[in-house]
Amino acid sequence: MIKFKVRKTLNFKKEYREAILSGRKTCTIRLKTNLKVGDEAYLVVGGEKLGVIRITAVNRKRIAELTNRDARRDGFRDVKELIKALKRHYKKIRLTTMVSIIHFRFIRDPGQ
Predict the structure, then answer these.
(1) Is 35 within 8 Å of 41 (Cβ atoms)?
(2) Using 50, 70 and 90 to split pLDDT, how confident is the model at 47?
(3) How far apart are CA 107 and CA 109, in angstroms?
(4) Domains along the chain with CATH numbers
């Protein structure tokens, strides 16, 4: 029997498209993830498949431990703006909530 590698997907809202494509956004912060270092995943923004990314790091932190550096890598000006966005996406988070910081690198267009 032939086994096919199942490709994972990392989805983003349309509002993050420009930050991702410009290279300002090189990570994302999620409550849960099944992604690990070395995984390749489809990059989907606003329902459109933009390409394939490789996961370069996955770190766990509490919201209170996030830094301005984390915020800038996620495409935000500072940690205050980042936390505000996280609260918009995840209504019930607290400063003690553990999150995964998923770092990624764009590797190719979807048709390649």
Answers:
(1) yes
(2) very high
(3) 7
(4) 8-108 (3.10.400.10)
Six token digits for residue 96: 């003690």
Angle at 53 between CA 75 and CA 98, to 5 degrees: 55
- Residue 28 burial by Cβ neighbours in a 10 Å radius (0-12, 13-18, 19+): buried
Indicate the pTM of the whole model.
0.88
Higher pLDDT, 6 or 20: 20
Residue carrying structure tokens 């790091």: 57
**Helical (H) or strand (E) element with 42:** strand 40-45
Among 15, 14, 71, 72, CA closest to 45: 14
Return the pLDDT at 108.
Answer: 73
pLDDT at 56: 97
The edge-to-edge listing of strands for the beta sheet with 27-30 is: 8-12, 40-45, 48-62, 98-108, 27-30
Q: Degrees (nearest 5) of the Cα angle 61, 106, 74? A: 35
